[in-house]
Amino acid sequence: MAGTDSTRSHAATVDRRTGPAIILVKPQLGENIGAVARAMLNCGLSDLRLVRPREDWPNEKARAAAAGADLVIDRARLFGTTPEAVADLRHLYATTARRRDMVKPVLTPKAAAGKLRAFLDNAEASGVLFGPERTGLDNDDITLADAVLEVPLNPAYASLNLAQAVLIVAYEFYQAQDVAPDVSQGRNGVIAATKDELLGFFEHLEDELDAGGFLIPPEKRPYMVRNIRNIFQRAGLTEQEVRTLRGMITSLASRRGRKGG
Questions:
Q1: Residues 15 and 104 in one domain
Q2: Low-confidence residues in the chain, pLDDT < 70
């Protein structure tokens, strides 16, 4: 579908601060990455993050499939792990077509769009995770997210390719620019914790739970860890709350050490 205004500069219409980051976890084909870049630029997004793409990067197939969305391709950043890719984000949504064995809020892209706009208004960085084309996101990646996005489609055939999924989310965000969210996201100057701060808290807590013998038997540990992390993800912790919780853990651990001595 044609319609590009060649008299307008792409750089003049997009900025990394104008919308959520799009994070592709283990994308398989360069052509799919290029199609995602095209969909992003259609909706004014340019922060593309790639976690361990299967093919080498930079990738000429991706550039060709981007059909002129070179700005997004050139700005794309590579990461070795999903936690590294989302470390600076304060809000994260994950896309999935399957219900998982974890409790998380489930939003449509349209419902999420208003929240993403509010995060932008509050200068709180956000992002959306997309998994590999064939398998989707694994549970550990979804645990990092505050909520899950599901696209309401024909239940008998709800299959989307990667670029279609990104376009739906990006389009709803773009359309929501003049629509106020149903619920204000204002936090009176309080700042949400980044994913890096949350992961530091999780690892601190899990180390002490291991030391206390809570995360047993070993074969159940991954499931228990995911459940614990999801409890705190749903709480929407602030920076100060994370610091308070870590202080509580340190205090309890030192008390246990004194009793043990």
A1: yes
A2: 1-17, 98-100, 178-189, 257-261
Instruction: Determine the distance from the C-alpha atom of residue 177 to the mean position of all C-alpha atoms in its chain, rounded to a whole number.
Output: 20
Q: Is the distance from CB of 26 to CB of 52 less than 8 angstroms?
A: yes
Angle between helices 239-260 and 195-211 (to 10 degrees): 20
Contact (Cβ atoms closer than 8 angstroms) between residue 79 and residue 21: no
Q: What is the CATH number of the domain that holds 164?
A: 3.40.1280.10
Residue 194: per-residue pLDDT: 97
CA distances from 62 to 24, 47, 71, 82, 226 (A): 13, 16, 12, 21, 34
pLDDT of residue 9: 47
Q: What is the pLDDT of residue 178?
A: 62
Question: Domain range spanning residue 50?
Answer: 10-178
Q: Single out the residue in 146, 178, 210 at which a domain terminates.
A: 178
- Any domain includes 75: yes
The verdict on residue 23 lying in a domain is: yes
